[in-house]
Write a structure and sequence with these properties.
26 strands, four-stranded antiparallel sheet
């Protein structure tokens, strides 16, 4: 009996167990008519009914007390063990399991129940009584409505240049924080532990790594020592998918990526210097702004630097120099967001300067897709966890843009003005319905997007995959063409006289500078002319004079001309 079937759904999603059986029909109750009630029936003829045009309404007022909700946690302890076995001790539980497995009755019971379970498992895998047969048609209907989003709630924390207190709020009671964390230094980043939501990891402005356990209060539970911590603010922290759930790593603008175990925070377990020359010199390292780690690729991680370069690393390389695998050219400024596509990990999204770009690991010289250059600086981005073709971006002008490149490539599918101040960060819920945006003044806005943006569309995965592959092939062709052109230019240059005087070099440099200045001023003058044209369009047009006004003006000009001629004659006399 070798049957293996992996269940990917939660037990709560299976629904209640249905037990069906055949039985004869039975009569539960039979109510006979009462003839006495029929004799008491009186017919009204005629019937008078009052009618008025307006609806009768009444108003009532009542003062009620404000209901305040409070959340409490309950710790469940594993049970069913004998009194002499402590379930918290791993050795005792393993010893007890081995003892039970060696028992003959246990083996016989398993073999007897195995045949029954085998039949049930085959039945369950053959047919699903809870299957919905019209999901695809519902998804098609969702696309008919226009993309939209609405504000659910606004959480206002504080207005400070650096926030050294982090508040936890719930939707049910947004006016009262559930808990306030108090770090030793202002917080720059904060992440929940995916295995234990009570444990949080934070990166501080002074370079330290802090860890909290909300069950123990608001004070720091574990804190790294200053001499072994980062030298600059910690802008990125990520939990690793380990068995213990205690491993994490951090990145800072000091050019270092450090691995930690929260059970021992005195010093990092491993350090990698972000020196792309692979000389492992800290003075040449690039400052890290953003981090990316995908649990399906446990040995790989990516770093977005403040110099605009993306670094792909392999943690399990033999030497420290080999841990830096390759680099991508990136952006003109710091990379504030870096995230792999949850459906296609080879493709990742970055945000820097005024654009958002989509990359492929198979094309290292340039990105495969990008947005237009916006007037406002982009600050953060995230993929939708439900739809592979949807991602979100925030800008310095307080706008949230939602992109759906299957529906529209040049412009966002929805652009929403969230607030008047700058938006600096965003997070998307696992179901893709809710988005939280954090602003410069400490305000968090919770939004709900329309079902069309949070429901997987029919054949969307295939369309997104084919689009990624097509753009990757196109970039590979262009890269090959550029390499060929560079080789030709190199060959021509080698055939010429290699001894070029300094005067010729100065002439070429001056020509390039003058050309760049000319192009720059052409763009400036074009923008000024565009603004003047827009201003002329906005000014009101002068009204045309009437025929009577034209005649009066002509008579006045003739009279003025006659008077002027008389003055000239007097002067001559």
């Amino acid at each position: 009996m070798e049957i293996v079937y992996v269940y990917v759904k939660k037990r709560s999603e299976f629904g209640k167990q249905c037990n069906f059986s055949d039985r004869q029909a039975e009569l539960n109750i039979d109510i006979m008519p009462n003839p006495e009630l029929a004799e008491q029936f009186v017919e009204r003829n005629p019937v008078d009914t009052g009618i008025q045009c307006s609806v009768s309404m009444s108003e009532h007022e009542a003062n009620t007390e404000r209901f305040e909700m409070e959340t409490r946690g309950v710790n469940h302890v594993e049970g069913g063990w004998p009194k002499d076995v402590n379930p918290l001790e791993l050795e005792q539980t393993i010893r007890f399991r081995k003892k039970v497995e060696k028992d003959e009755n246990y083996v016989n019971a398993i073999m007897q129940l195995g045949s029954i379970m085998e039949h049930c498992i085959k039945q369950n895998n053959a047919i699903d009584i809870y299957e919905e047969y019209f999901n695809d048609e519902e998804a098609v209907e969702v696309m008919e409505e226009a993309p939209s989003a609405k504000t659910i709630n606004v959480f206002r924390y504080c207005c400070m240049p650096w926030w050294d207190i982090f508040f936890f709020c719930f939707i049910e009671n947004p006016n009262k924080p559930e808990l306030a964390l108090k770090p030793s230094s202002p917080l720059v980043t904060l992440e929940f532990n995916p295995k234990d939501s009570h444990v949080l990891l934070g990166g501080c402005y002074n370079g330290q790594i802090a860890c909290w356990d909300t069950r123990k209060g608001s004070l720091v539970a574990e804190l790294s020592t200053i001499e072994f911590s980062h030298r600059d603010p910690v802008y990125g922290t990520i939990w690793l998918q380990s068995k213990t759930g205690t491993e994490c790593f951090s990145a800072s603008t000091d050019g270092q990526v450090m691995w930690w175990d929260i059970r021992k925070m005195s010093e990092p377990t491993e350090v990698v210097i972000m020196d792309i020359t692979k000389k492992e010199q800290l003075e040449n390292a690039l400052g890290a702004i953003s981090l990316e780690f995908e649990s399906t690729l446990p040995t790989k991680f990516m770093v977005g630097t403040e110099q605009g370069i993306i670094i792909s690393c392999n943690r399990k390389a033999k030497t420290s120099a080999e841990k830096i695998v390759c680099t991508f050219p990136g952006h003109h400024g710091p990379i504030y967001a870096l995230q792999r596509n949850p459906f296609y990990p080879k493709n990742f999204l970055t945000v820097g300067d005024w654009t958002a770009r989509i990359w492929s690991e198979d094309s290292r010289e340039s990105c495969i897709m990008w947005t237009k250059y916006h007037m406002a600086y982009l600050t953060d981005a995230a993929w939708s966890p439900i739809r592979p073709a949807v991602f979100f971006t925030t800008k310095m002008d307080g706008t949230l843009d939602i992109w759906d490149f299957v529906f529209k490539q040049c412009d966002p599918a929805l652009s929403l003005k969230v607030c008047d101040e700058a938006l600096f960060c965003l997070r998307v819920q696992d179901n893709g319905c809710f988005i939280a945006c954090g602003s410069q003044l400490g305000t968090t806005t919770l939004l709900e997007v329309s079902p069309g943006l949070s429901t997987l569309q029919r054949n969307e995965k295939n369309v997104a995959s084919s689009m990624f592959e097509r753009e990757t092939r196109r970039e590979k062709i262009l890269e090959a063409r550029h390499r060929e052109m560079r080789l030709k230019e190199k060959g021509k240059a080698e055939g010429r006289d290699e001894e070029q005087t300094d005067e010729d070099l100065d002439i070429d440099l001056e020509a390039l500078v003058s050309k760049a200045e000319e192009e720059f001023f052409d763009i400036i003058f074009a923008e000024l002319k565009k603004k003047e044209a827009d201003a002329i369009k906005l000014t009101p047009m002068p009204q045309q004079p009437s025929p009577e006004e034209d005649q009066a003006v002509e008579e006045g000009e003739e009279a003025a001309g006659e008077g002027k001629s008389e003055e000239v004659e007097e002067d001559l006399a």
